[in-house]
Amino acid sequence: MLASVRGVQVAQSADNEADEGSEQAEGPENTADDAQEAQEMAQYQSLVKVTAQQAQLTAEALHGGSATHTELSVEDGSLVYDIEFANANIMVDAGTGQILKTEAQGQEQNDVTETPIQGSIQVPDNDGGDQGGAQQ
């Protein structure tokens, strides 16, 4: 599901593969995965206390610029908004609206050395790591 927030498309996400821009053939397995992801994202959306627009405005106020992309995702089992800028990524807690993490673009930490995020809304993290990205 896409919505426009101040000219920026806001995507609700659940799967890292689509975020990476990978193109995969649509087969029965992918269709079933997409349906499951859509169901999970609908459940996750019902848990959020902060809108994508509120999260984006908070991140823009901190960063001092306009976001290029906003999506709801699961990071370390926490429900967050991943707000992308041309030169940074900011993660905002989907329950409280607090900034959880700021990373300069290209400076993403290795999963082994990265400190896990502790957001206010905990959900199953089926990947065991970052789940971000499928646009619906």
TrEMBL record:
Entries under InterPro entries matching the protein: PepSY
Stretches of the chain forming a coiled coil according to its record: none
Gene3D superfamilies according to UniProt: 3.10.450.40
Region (Disordered): 1-39, 103-136
Pfam families xref list: PepSY
Signal peptide location: none
Domain spans labelled PepSY: 49-103
Polar residues bias (residue ranges): 104-123
Record-given protein name: Peptidase
Native source species: Phormidesmis priestleyi
Highest classification ranks of the organism: Bacteria, Bacillati, Cyanobacteriota, Cyanophyceae, Leptolyngbyales
